[in-house]
Amino acid sequence: MSSQSGIEANQNLLRDFQSFVASQKKVLILKIQNEALEVDSTLDGGDASIDVWLQSLRSTLSEHAPAYVVIRNNNGKTFTFISYVPSEAKVHDKMVYASTNGAIARDLGADHFSSSVFVDSKEDLTSQWWESVQGEKKGSDSNIHAEEDPEKQDDEIWLQAGSSSRRKSLVQDQRKELGFRMDPSLEKVVYGCAGHSGDVDVVYTIVIKGEELQLDAKHTLENLKTDLVGALPTENPSYNIVSSAKGEFFIYCCPSGSKVRDRMKYAASRLAFTKDLKNHGYNFKQTVEVGDPAELDVSSLLETTSEQKKDTAKASQFLGGKMRFSKPRGPRRR
């Protein structure tokens, strides 16, 4: 069972947002604090010029901390939603905000917003920028109204998690770079085992500590079918690489008691990590995502592998789209 990433708007935030909509204030700034979305501050526009209230906004925003910014449009009726994720922010914070981006805009009410904009430097918030935003047609640069599938959502997370200097390469291949550093000892162990499945069943458990992927544990199993579930962590999310005689498997576990921030970190990094492993020689029979380890159906996992072998055997009977028949024997000599 997979867990959807993202922090939802609570009733307090929805009430504060409605108060902002009903007021004449120009800017609403939201931040994620203690795993909840909260109003950080509001700014008055009044009769001030564009340059004045934008300067106030730039002064309020940090060069190191992301935020969501809602700005009242010039028509006074609709709003522009800004996902502000500075290049200098921690990778962890970038992923948390990126994975919540679409959900918060929808929770607040998509009809309120004429456009959704991503900004990675507060210095970009100039009068020329604001005039260009106001000149856009409704919904022309917005993904608020679009339903995102998991693949597309993860692409967006990785695109927004990258700095401006990396964004071009990320557009070409959003998942080819890991957002977290890999501990050298983990790199040596994991990459060294790629494509070398043998008679011994081994599980490598990998976790994110700080901003680094680290090897948390290595388990050698006597019986893959009966011992695999017990080798998986039950308290916190983890990536698990299974190298066995049955093949290689990737298992992402996200236990029900995991913190929301941890869920988002692991969910946002999973596709990039598995792609990186495949680029280094891994050929996973299956990539599985479960909540609690007890949800993993090992029998089904191994049976699927057996079925794949049967299908391969059947396919080998065909050559060039035609079935290959055994050559008939000639008549016996008398």
Automatic annotation (TrEMBL):
Gene3D superfamilies linked: Severin (3.40.20.10)
Alphabetized Pfam families for the sequence: Cofilin_ADF (PF00241)
InterPro entries: ADF-H (IPR002108), ADF-H/Gelsolin-like_dom_sf (IPR029006), Twinfilin (IPR028458)
Main location: cytoplasm
Bias type Basic and acidic residues, positions: 134-147
Alphabetical list of CDD domains matching this protein: ADF_Twf-N_like
Single GO molecular function: actin filament binding
Region (Disordered): 134-153, 305-334
Cross-referenced SUPFAM superfamilies: Actin depolymerizing proteins
One BP annotation, GO: barbed-end actin filament capping
Compositional bias annotation for Basic residues: 324-334
Domain ADF-H residues, every copy: 1-135
Protein keywords: Actin-binding, Cytoplasm, Cytoskeleton, Repeat
GO CC terms, sorted: actin filament; cytoplasm
Keyword Repeat: yes
Compartment annotation: Cytoplasm, Cytoskeleton
PANTHER family tied to this protein: TWINFILIN
Quaternary structure annotation from Swiss-Prot or TrEMBL: Interacts with G-actin; ADP-actin form.
Family to which this protein belongs: Belongs to the actin-binding proteins ADF family. Twinfilin subfamily.
Record-given protein name: DEBR0S3_15500g1_1
Organism: Dekkera bruxellensis (Brettanomyces custersii)
